[in-house]
Structures are given as structure tokens and as C-alpha cells.
Amino acid sequence: MHCVCKSTRKAGRCLCLCQDVVTPNGPLNKAVGEDVEFTLIDPPPAPPFQINWLFGSVLICSGSAGSVIGVNPSYEGRASLDPNTATLELRSLTLNDTGEYTLRVTMIIGQVEKEWKTTLRVFERVSDAAITIAGSPDPLIAGKSSVSLTCEAKGSITTRKWMQNGETLSPETDRITFSDDNRTVSISPVQKEDRGEYKCQYKSATPSVLQKGLEH
């Protein structure tokens, strides 16, 4: 129970408004294969009369007065409910578990059912990350050779950013172009100022940086 109190104009008097706050934690980010717990920021002091957890419109599990009523067969072995705290645990997450979760609670008999929502995003861990180079064979010749660098990686990647010698690389001239998804940067023709270390910084749930040297 959380209360907010405000003083009134009359000395010595205070007006307090109180309400139950049982908002689920979130939004949450987890990797494929991991487990997640949907817990309450302020758990109820006593087991709720009725608990229902849903994924979208699909009922996952339900509980009542400190006991688990049932678990959806499609979640059998993967979902568990603590009927005392209304905590929901999901195990062995898949990409299909991404979405909105709803908690519906009736604290005591006769009380109106209340509803709270939270979200979960399940991502694929990035793997097989590397920078590959294609184009003119070594050695690169200024004014003649062309080269393309590609940021390769498997997994849930949202953005990629290229850097040259610690500075953000941008298509300031017609010589430097990027693919629509920023996966590949092409330089044609190369010039002496293109020499140096190139990095691909990709953003996912766990940001990382790849680097590759370019000499000519």
C-alpha cells in the first residue's frame, strides 16, 4: 500500500490518499533460452483471491487464494505461478514469447478485478561476428582500387555504425557509400586518407564492436 499525504490550510491537518500498487516489472529483455520472472513492484500483503496471467489474449496460468488453479497445456513445464505473490516465471524462452503480458488480479472477494500490463522482448544472442573485405586485391592503389567492408553477424541486431580511426564514418563524398542497412560500406576509389582502422559498432541487447585494419 502506497500513500501520498498533503498538508491542508488548516494547521495540524493532513489529507492522505492511499492505493494498492502492484505494477509488474518491465519492460524486460531476455535472450533465447533464458528464463524470466514477472514480479510485482509492490507485492500484495496477502495472497490475492484471483490471479490470471495472459500473453496477448491467451491465458497462461491462474491461481486463487494461495493455490495454483491451472496452467495452459501449451505452457506446461515452462510456466509456473507463485499464487502468494502473483509472480510468473517463464523458462526456456523463444522468440515467440516476445509481446505484451497482462496480469489480472482480484485482491478480495467482491472486489472489482484490476488489470496491469508489461512487455517482454526476447532476442537472439549475436554470434559469428566478423568484418569481411572484398574488392581489389592487395596492395590497394590510391585512386584506382576499390574495397567493400561488410559487418557480418547473426542474431538480433538493430543498428550498425561504422568508424574510421575512432571517428564516425559518413558518406561525405561520392566515394563512400553505405548499404541500406549499414551492413556494408564501399569505398571507390580508395585514397590515402582512407588508410587506418575500421570498426563496426552494432547495437543489440548486448552492444559490441568489431574492428579491421585497411592499408594501401
TrEMBL record:
UniProt keyword annotations, A-Z: Disulfide bond, Glycoprotein, Immunoglobulin domain, Signal
Domain named Ig-like: residues: 129-210
Which Pfam families does the record associate with it? Ig_3 (PF13927)
Q: What is this protein called?
A: Ig-like domain-containing protein
UniProt xrefs under InterPro entries: Ig-like_dom, Ig-like_dom_sf, Ig-like_fold, Ig_sub, Ig_sub2, IgSF_CEA-related
Q: Where does this protein come from, organism-wise? A: Coilia grayii
